Amino acid sequence: MTIKELDPQIVWKNFYALTQIPRPSKHEELAVEYMYNWGKEHGLETIKDEVGNIIIRKPATPGCENMKGVILQGHVDMVPQKNADTVHDFLTDPIQTWIDGEWVKAKGTTLGADNGLGLAMAMAVLESNDIKHGPIELLCTIDEETGMTGAMALKPGVLEGEILINLDSETEGELYVGCAGGLDASASATYVPAEAPEAHECWSLAVKGFKGGHSGMDIILCRGNANKLAARIIYELMTKADVKLLDLEGGTLRNAIPREAFATVYVPEAKVAEAQKVFAEVSAAIKAEYAGTDPDSEFIFKPYECAEGECCCHGDECKYVPEADAYRFIRAILACPDGVERMSSEMPGLVETSNNLAMVKIEAGEFSVKTLMRSSVDTAKDALAQKFEAIFSLAGIETSFAGGYSGWAPNPDSAILATMKKVYNDLYGKEPAVMAIHAGLECGILSGAYPHWDMVSCGPTLMSPHSPDERANIPSVAKCWEFLQAVLANIPVK
């Protein structure tokens, strides 16, 4: 059985089509083209704006013309993450999906259900002939995962609807009415590499097997950050076994908690046994600390093995980071805020402010750190940025900030929220949970161009988005589809 055969087929066939289109963030051109052509092929008014956002309009079904217009919204891009041993090119290869009981998964990569399933449901609404609804617009934005580019570039006056239903949240039975804002924080410096020392052996170090996950949704789980933990091990090796650092690299995306980090070091020949002992003790301690959150963590420390045809005995690739620079870089990484900074005092269980130490690279004379800060309170986000700048400035490292956006404040008087709560209760005999989310939904940005919109976010249940463990719950997709149809049939009149 393939995912195209799952119920509701009208949703899953659209999702399958999206899995066949390479669409990593910043490279969504094929998906944009597909959505544009899809709208035209279905005889619907279709618009592409200057940055590549797609808007598709469908008239109201007969008798529903007086309903308020609804915008169904999702993003076309996906997070490109894969396991180290998975052969996959996100620019050219389709996602390989498989069914595991009640879950749809991908083979060693992210699934792209974030936000492919939301788009698939919106497409199903547009192509259906038996759904009661008022005027519908589908807004497909680009580059949500790495910059909110599409949402930020959306111009006022283009969309006609009054209600926006964002289909990008990830737990069925929960309605989201607020989200965190975000800020990209970076730190960089240069150094002059030192020549390879005598009487030293080259060793490789790897931190692997951590679960990672979405830097907003999963930050509350306190999973291990591979960058932090690699730096911790390196620091112990430097201070206790005189190890010298050649390079360090970990993490691939700002919004994904880093699962792996890799380093190369020089170990004094006379202290190999001591270095092995230090590594064993520190890695065992870390493994015990994170046994509950990351039971499959793996730590490797072994003599460096040259790749076939590689000569690592001479040249720039064998130069190391001078001791003073190595210490200030590693100490800065250790001191850098990571994880939950503060919990919300207004909504129990909600993270207010956090930072994800997403990417670290030390190599060939350059040092860089990239993080993603989130907060539902703009002043708290500013304070965290100030702390970040202070820490790296003390180490003589420059900082910069970009891509900042505000959060989405809840509206307790929302008419569409009241409608959706009633519809859910009528269908399932219980109230849906009303939530705010510690992640960057596009609603907050979109409200800047369309402040009159009444907005709610919902979606099927996804687990571990932004990681190769991403999976979509099949029964929740059917339930969310049923709920969406019922909501559209009960939209308030103008």
Structure overview:
It is a single chain. This protein is of the alpha+beta class and 494 residues long. It has two domains: 261 residues, Zn peptidases (Aminopeptidase); 223 residues, 2-Layer Sandwich (Alpha-Beta Plaits), CATH 3.30.70.360. Helix 5 packs antiparallel against helix 6 and helix 5 packs across helix 7. The protein is elongated. The model has no long low-confidence stretch (mean pLDDT 95).
Summarize the structure.
The chain is built from 11 helices and 23 strands. It has 494 residues and is of the alpha+beta class.
Radius of gyration: 24 Å
For the record, the CATH architecture of the largest domain stands as 3-Layer(aba) Sandwich
Question: How is the main sheet built?
Answer: 9 strands, antiparallel
What is the number of independent domains?
A: 2
Give the % helix: 25-40%
- From the N-terminal CA to the C-terminal CA, the straight-line distance is 45 Å
Number of strands: 23
CATH topology of the largest domain: Aminopeptidase
Oligomer: single chain
How much strand content do the residues show? 25-35%
Average predicted confidence as pLDDT: 95
CATH class of the largest domain: Alpha Beta
Number of helices: 11
Q: Spans with pLDDT under 50 lasting ≥5 residues?
A: none
Query: What is the overall shape?
Result: elongated
CATH superfamily of the largest domain: Zn peptidases
Structural class: alpha+beta
